[in-house]
Write a structure and sequence with these properties.
Helix content: 25-40%
Number of helices: 7
Strand content: 15-25%
Mean pLDDT: 84
Strand order of the largest sheet: 4-6-7-8-3-9-10
Order of helices and strands: EEEHEEEHHEHEHEEHH
Radius of gyration: 19 Å
Oligomer: single chain
Largest sheet: 7 strands, mixed
């Protein structure tokens, strides 16, 4: 893609509200990156990377709230549907978002809440007052009739269109081959449509997407990082390249 085709079309900045009062002992204001948060989003695809508990999913939930999307997953039609255990973002009230222009549409993919979304569609199908077929966009039948990965890809395919797309650890539902299929979908969409994606992931496969920005949440701050510098890449590459050596050290440490 040409450089201009990589540019973020919608959300361009995330920063802490200047009037926000931070309590270093209470979540979410105890997140170490929050006091200095002033993040520019410059590319169509941005990956949030970091260890469990580093705050990347929490920030992604806040972005969903700033974009008018349900933090439990889904599109704007699911706002207020109550289909997931999480209804609000704790972090969003402390943030400001700057937009080049507001996204015309959007969707928040959460692999761990996929079953809740599938059940919501089933409930809509059983509701005589719900107009239309809730399954029509998703292959014409309940997502519960598919495997976790198949259902997730079906929803992804249905919502791969102009707008802002958030994904929280999509690899949890996808095999390595299906992750490659997802990358192809993302690359095609970015070449042809005004789309912006923010993806929290641990997958080195997904991180290989050309033109994407990788942001590390490790070390208590958010900073750009190269693929080869990430612990995800180093560990995966190392153990696949020499599993015997890795296991020898693991057993010795144990």
């Amino acid at each position: 893609m040409r450089p201009s085709e990589h540019r973020a079309p919608f959300l361009t900045q995330l920063r802490r509200r200047p009037d926000a009062v931070l309590d270093g002992d209470t979540f979410p204001t105890n997140l170490p990156f929050l006091p200095e948060l002033d993040l520019n989003l410059t590319t169509k695809v941005t990956f949030f990377l970091g260890e469990n508990g580093s705050g990347k999913s929490t920030l992604l939930e806040a972005v969903a709230a700033l974009c008018g999307l349900p933090v439990g997953g889904g599109g704007r039609n699911e706002a207020g549907a109550g289909h997931s255990p999480q209804a609000t973002s704790d972090l969003a009230p402390y943030l400001l978002g700057s937009f080049r222009r507001r996204p015309p549409d959007g969707f928040f993919f959460r692999a761990e809440f996929q079953a809740h979304f599938a059940s919501l569609l089933d409930a809509r199908r059983a509701d005589p007052e719900f107009g239309g077929d809730p399954f029509s966009r998703y292959g014409g039948r309940s997502l519960h009739t598919r495997s976790h990965g198949e259902a997730f890809l079906q929803v992804l395919s249905a919502w791969m269109r102009p707008g802002i797309i958030l994904m929280d650890e999509p690899e949890a539902a996808l095999s390595p081959q299906r992750q490659l299929a997802l990358l192809v979908q993302i690359a095609r969409l970015c070449r042809s449509q005004p789309v912006q994606m923010l993806i929290a992931t641990h997958s080195p496969i997904l991180m290989t997407l050309p033109g994407a920005t990788l942001l590390s949440f490790d070390d208590g701050r958010i900073a750009p990082v190269m693929l080869q510098e990430t612990s995800h890449f180093r560990i995966t590459h190392g153990i696949l390249d020499a599993p015997e050596r890795y296991w020898r050290h693991l057993v010795e440490e144990d």
